[in-house]
Amino acid sequence: MGATRVLIIILTLALPTLLFILLFKQSLDVDISPWPSNRQMRRALIEALPDSVQAQGEIWDLGSGWGGLVQCLAEKYPQSQVIGVELSWIPWLMSQLYNRLSSQKNITIRRENFYDTSLSHASLVVCYLFPGAMESLRSKFKSELPPDSWVASITFEIPGWHPERVVEIGEVRRLTIYLYRLSSQD
Ligand SMILES: C[S@@+](CC[C@H](N)C(=O)[O-])C[C@H]1O[C@@H](n2cnc3c(N)ncnc32)[C@H](O)[C@@H]1O
To answer: 163: how many CB neighbours lie within 10 A of its CB?
Structure first.
């Protein structure tokens, strides 16, 4: 076997392994994998969201992963700017590519830590995260979000907040969507 062939085999095996290690390490850093919301979750979320947020301000997906949910939000709210924030390199890169190929022109994807992002112009924030993140984000939402804004969370509640709507779907695997209005919180 020639040296070139050995090099090609090593690279073919090494590149996916390196990408996997990077993805795994970054998932550990942010306490969650970039596992995306599925079609059923997205459909239920999009139906539950109020039409009235349209054109009032920015729409954010905190932890936008591979960018699929951002596309659905951009389709529902074509007059609004939809912003995805993702810290993990590989999902962020793939979502940038997805965005370039998409016909939606109202999307921005940022590679940032969402705890460092100002939400002061948001009209709607969407999350599919984990319990600890919802707890940490609660005070950020309270101090930064405009009074008439909305927060939607797939699966995980914001502890201590009162949802405006709770949507439950799925017979075998139950799925809950929580919709909060900032003005209804203490
Ligand atoms: C379960 S995935 C959800 C992806 C997407 N929102 C969806 O519904 O398909 C959560 C994402 O949040 C990202 N994430 C977690 N903490 C973050 C942080 N502090 N800043 C930015 N992204 C973060 C993770 O890297 C992961 O890709």
So the answer is: 19
